[in-house]
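Reminder to self: keep the SMILES exactly as supplied, no canonicalising. Ligand is guanosine-5'-triphosphate.
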Amino acid sequence: MAIVNGDKLKIVVFGAFDAGKSSFIRAVDPASRHVEARTDGGLTTVALDFGRVTIGNTRVFIFGTPGQERFEFVRGILSRGMDGAIVMVDATRSVDAMTCDFCEWLHETGVPFVIMLNKCDLPAASPGTFANLAGDGFVHCISALTGDQVHEGLRLFVERLIRLRRKNK
Ligand SMILES: Nc1nc2c(ncn2[C@@H]2O[C@H](COP(=O)(O)OP(=O)(O)OP(=O)(O)O)[C@@H](O)[C@H]2O)c(=O)[nH]1
Ligand SMILES: [Mg+2]
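Structure tokens returned for the bound complex:
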């Protein structure tokens, strides 16, 4: 996937329902916007999340997708023209088919991606469970709730995207 503008990056956050995609974008950008609906269990994304952050000289635009299966068409729209992707995983759960499909699809399309193992603040988090998910890819343990490793994980990924862009010029 070509990176069109040298100083701008579009990153899209994928992940199963409730993995913490919206929380991640809130932690990255407190002024982020969210289109969500209230359910018995709290809020769920029904359209998108949108946040912005500047890392070095690069303006990063982050789009969060809905996790519910039925919103596949929204994920299709939001993924257009992305420079990189984040797969958000709830590290307290077991590996699910949807998350595996995201990783496989991104691998096939050649879009650089990172797996963020979220909810690592919880004692039930078991990052080792996901070792096979990434293959030789990149994995980062974070907590979108406490903010731990959120900025660091994003910065490392953005720097990797910038290095790839320079290499492909
Ligand atoms: N303990 C803990 N809870 C978290 C963390 N991140 C998110 N949560 C909680 O997990 C729930 C789901 O978070 P969201 O950010 O809405 O998840 P989502 O992936 O956007 O969910 P959908 O849009 O419905 O797919 C909320 O109750 C959050 O407070 C985390 O790092 N630690
Ligand atoms: Mg959400």
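Points to follow up:
Confidence is low (pLDDT under 50) at residues 1-5.
The domain at 8-168 is CATH 3.40.50.300 (Rossmann fold).
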